[in-house]
Known about the structure:
This protein is of the alpha+beta class. The chain has helices spanning about 5, 110-115, 130-145, 155-170, 175-190, 200-205, 210-220, 225-240, 245-255, 260-270, 275-280, and strands at about 15-20, 25-35, 50-60, 60-65, 70-75, 80, 90, 100-105, 125. A hairpin with a 4-residue loop joins strand 4 and strand 5.
Amino acid sequence: MVVENMFSGIEVPTRIVFRDNRNYNDRIGMGIQNKTGPEDQVPAPACFSFFSVSWLARGNGSYENSLTGQCRPLAAGSVFLRQPGVEHRVHVDTGSGWLEYWLHLGNFAWPFFRNYLSLRDDSLTGQFTPSPEWFSRFDTLMDRLEASPEDALLERAMELCMFAADCVRRTRGGGEEEDMIHRGCEFLGTNFAENRDLRTFCRRNGWGYERFRKLFTDRVGISPNRYRIQRRMAAARSLLAQTYRSVESIAGELGYCSVFDFSAKFKAYTGLSPSEFRKKAREPYKDFFHVPLNLIR
C-alpha cells in the first residue's frame, strides 16, 4: 500500500478530543488535524512539557531537533515524536495538504517510552504504513476517550499508551549498528564536565574509530563532535530556562573553565547572553495543546 495514494482526493475533517486532569495540570488527547493555513506555521523552536506521537497521512514538512541539530524531512507515512523538555519545531508545508493523526500523552508517559523502548534523542522520527485496522482502532479509541467518564480516564490513558507504543515500535530498527549509535549518543550527550575521548571509547568497545565516526555522521546527520556541542548547549538552555541556579554554577556543571568562557560560547551559539536567554525563556508562551515546560512551577 502506497501511503501517498491512501488519502489522495479524500477530505478528512479535523477532529480533536482532549480530556483534562485538572488536579495535576495534565491532559490526554487524540486528534485528526488538517494544517493548511498560516496559523499552522510555528515560527521558532519551542519546548513543551508533554509527550506526543504523530503520524502524517498527507503532506510535507520537516522536523527540527534543537538538541541534536538534526533536520529530518517529513512526508506521508512519517512518524514523529514530541519529546518533553527539548526544543523542536515541526515545519508544515501548508500547501501540501497536511493531514496528521496524533496522540497526546501528557506529562507522565515519556520516561516509560524512553526507558522501555530505548528511545534516543536522535531517533524521534520514523516511517510506517498503517493497515485499515489501524484507522478503525484510532477512531474507536477517540470515541471511547470522548465518551469516557472521569473515573475511567486511567484506562483510556493506558489504551492510548499501548496504541502509541505500537506505532513507535513499527519505526524501530535494531542490530549492532543501532547499538553503536545508541551507546555513542549516551557517551557524547552526558557528563559534560569530563574530558571524554572518543577514540578511547571506541577502542574500549572494540569499534574502529573511523567506522564509528562515519556511521554516526551518516545516521545522526552531524559529526560526533558537533553532536556533543549541541547536547552541551541544549543542557545549558534547559538549566537556564527551568532552574534558578546561578550562571556560574551551570558553567561549572557543564565543564567550562570559567563563567566568562561559558557566557562567550553561549552567546556565540545562541546570539543571546545566558541572562538574556533566561529572561526570554520565561516570557509567557501560548500553546493550544499545553503550557510550555518552563512555565510549570
